[in-house]
């Protein structure tokens, strides 16, 4: 049986929930039509609970109304995609791999007023902006692998899916993930069997190999959370002999490493949120 959290009796402030497992004073499916009924609900509440997947317009409406939300997703929508995250890390002065955002493959050509662009020295990493679990990520070691990656990018452009990152390659045996759920900070280490470290492809969970690096990962994740308000995400780090670097923020992330504890932690975070809006 799937657990549910009924918050309608836990706070005197009315709450609208778009989350199917959190029962508020008003409950709306996140992909419902936006009409006067939704505006009427928003006019009566102080807080909004979102699932991890929902239309951006709902968050924008809540924000425009001055409502408190959980999760807090301002940076998710203000800095979308992997290119937005790199820009965020740069603006916040947080360590991340050297990265170039390329809007189109045509940026490598000659155009009036264009900034000249050439491939960096091999090896480097190519990433598409919107794929997950290691899809659309290439380790480019030479001309042949660049041709493979660029053919993939050309196919995406024919579908109207533009843009990619060129990122420095930071080889290492491990990578780390810090999961933020409310005030909880959970660290997981993955050993990479190959280039990719995610559990869906070439990685496996291992005990912490370095306590100093773990404390560093926690400190960087906390700095990111404090500077952005982020409170539901999986923050991925690259580990190399050059140090520890922020890699990506995953707002929708796999839960295998949590061992079935996600819902309980999410409900706990919702209750913490309620205590803030209704002290």
What is the compact description of this entry?
This protein has 279 residues and is an alpha/beta fold. 29% of the residues lie in helices and 25% in strands. Strand 11 and strand 12 (184-192) form a beta hairpin.
Can you offer a commentary on this structure?
This protein has helices spanning 36-42, 56-64, 74-78, 81-91, 143-158, 211-228, 262-277, and strands at 5-6, 15-17, 22-23, 26-27, 47-49, 68-70, 99-102, 124-128, 137-140, 164-168, 174-181, 184-192, 203-206, 232-240, 243-250. The protein contains seven helices and 15 strands. The two termini are 32 Å apart. 27% of the residues are buried. The protein folds into three domains: 5-73, no CATH class; 98-168, Dna Ligase, domain 1 (2-Layer Sandwich), CATH 3.30.1490.20; 171-262, 2-Layer Sandwich (D-amino Acid Aminotransferase, Chain A, domain 1), CATH 3.30.470.20. The strands form four sheets. It has a five-stranded antiparallel beta sheet. Strands 4-2-5-6 form a four-stranded parallel beta sheet, with helices on both faces. The chain has 279 residues and is α/β, with parallel strands linked by helices. The longest helix is centred in the C-terminal third of the chain and has 18 residues, at 211-228. 29% of the residues lie in helices and 25% in strands.
CATH architecture of the largest domain: 2-Layer Sandwich
Q: Roughly what percent helix?
A: 25-40%
**Spatial arrangement of strands, main beta sheet:** 13-12-11-14-15
By CATH, the superfamily of the largest domain comes out as ATP-grasp fold, B domain
For this structure, what is the CATH class of the largest domain?
Alpha Beta
């Amino acid at each position: 049986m799937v657990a549910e959290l009924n918050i309608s009796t836990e706070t005197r402030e009315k709450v609208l929930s778009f989350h199917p497992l959190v029962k508020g004073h008003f409950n709306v499916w996140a992909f419902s039509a936006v009409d006067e009924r939704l505006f009427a609900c928003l006019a009566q509440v102080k807080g909004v609970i979102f699932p991890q997947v929902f239309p951006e317009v709902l968050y924008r409406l809540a924000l425009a109304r001055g409502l408190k939300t959980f999760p807090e997703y301002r940076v998710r929508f203000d800095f979308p995609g992997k290119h937005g995250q790199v820009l965020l890390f740069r603006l916040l002065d947080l360590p991340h791999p050297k990265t170039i955002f390329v809007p189109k493959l045509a940026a490598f050509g000659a155009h009036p007023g264009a900034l000249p662009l050439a491939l960096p020295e091999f090896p480097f990493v190519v990433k598409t902006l919107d794929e997950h679990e290691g899809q659309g990520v290439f380790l480019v070691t030479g001309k042949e692998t660049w041709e493979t990656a660029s053919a993939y990018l050309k196919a995406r452009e024919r579908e109207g899916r533009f843009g990619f990152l060129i990122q420095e390659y930071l080889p290492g045996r491990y990578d780390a993930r810090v999961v933020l759920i409310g005030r909880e900070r959970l660290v997981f280490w993955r050993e990479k069997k190959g280039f990719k470290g995610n559990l869906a492809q070439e990685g496996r969970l291992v005990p912490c190999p370095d306590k100093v690096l773990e404390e560093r990962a926690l400190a960087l994740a906390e700095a990111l959370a404090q500077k952005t308000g982020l409170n539901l995400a999986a923050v991925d780090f690259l580990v190399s002999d050059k140090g520890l670097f922020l890699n990506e923020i995953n707002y929708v992330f796999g839960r295998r490493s949590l061992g079935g504890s996600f819902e309980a932690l999410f409900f706990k975070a919702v209750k913490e949120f309620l205590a803030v809006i209704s002290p």
